[in-house]
Write a structure and sequence with these properties.
Structural class: mainly alpha
Helix content: over 70%
Number of strands: 0
Largest sheet: none
CATH architecture of the largest domain: Orthogonal Bundle
Radius of gyration: 19 Å
Number of helices: 9
Order of helices and strands: HHHHHHHHH
Shape: globular
Distance between the termini: 46 Å
CATH class of the largest domain: Mainly Alpha
Strand content: under 5%
Amino acid sequence: MTGDQPLIEAFQSGDEFAFVSLYNRYKGPVYAFCVKMLSDREVAADVMQDTFLRLYENRDRLLKSSSFKSWLFTVARNQCLNTMRRDKRMVGYGDGIEDVPGDSTPVSRLEKSERIAMVSECLMRLKPDYREVLILREYQNLSYDEIAAVTRSTVSAVKSRLFKARRKLAGMLTPVMAEPPTKKTTVSAAVTRADA
């Protein structure tokens, strides 16, 4: 991936193809972030579109941003949080499950899909500030500095939040993963026990 600066400058000069190039480069990561934050593909697609609309409307602010990627994820994060506040609801679990390519058998695909569903459900049970740092680090591979810029906090605060988020997620997943396959324990029941 080449640097974003030439595309940003071309976009600011009125080159619509530069905007399309930026959109094509970042639509997947932004959408994936929104799906993980909201666990609803339809709402996530709307939030992604709103994020790029903000980019289009604020093209003059881009050169002032030290990192385009951080700026873009900050906008996406704010749009997600606004959506969560506006809806005042916890979104459904499991909508963010992605297809699992590459597995050879239907059984292995099902098992992997079930693990992804468990992680997704537990992820949605985390507080939004824990969830966002995990998603930005583990799914989007942002650096600690970039996450600090997106969340408007310090690197040490990001590291601390990430540590607590991983520990909380592990606490939720451990009882679920430890259950024998013959025993049908729901993720919700196991998480409730882990929270108790």
